[in-house]
Amino acid sequence: MKIGINLWLLVEEGGGVCNYVLTLLRHWNQYFPGDALVIFSFPQNETLLSTLPSSCRKDEIRLRAQEEINDYLDRFDIYFCPIGSLYPRPLPKPSVITLVDIQERFYPEFFKQEDLESRLHHYDISLKIADRIITISEFSKKTFVRILGISKRKIDRIYLCADEMPEALQPKGWPLTKKTMEESLSDFTTN
User: Which of 24, 69, 135, 149 could tie 140 with a disulfide, CB 3.0–4.6 Å?
Assistant: First the structure.
């Protein structure tokens, strides 16, 4: 199976959702070698995508606008939008989106008017049109059902995986090295 993945909304300011997408791309071939990703990338993605191994980008198609995805419908079987909005829509392919939450419904004061209007428009229609929805919590799943009337049968709750921990940095002026730390610990355990 080939999965077309729209990366239009993958931007550096994307926070945790951006990290989710990069982790997914980084590990996809390892866990799902039989299901190829056809990546639709855009100029605003380049900095983030450059952090991926080239093997993750072997089936990448660089576009200028999302509407151009319609020209490549024969290249994939399922369409996946991992960052909340299904676009272009509708496509004559089974579609999946990931939407983490609809926090704008609970805290509209934390959003600029333009962002709020965009979320209300794109998220609502995307949830209704998508064939499957991935979200990260039972709370989000229940809010999609309760607030927007989405069928719970088309929503899958999949928890995010933990990131690998970065190597610990030693603060400047910190007196302990690995060797002196081991010596200190051995002094403690022998006394």
Answer: 135
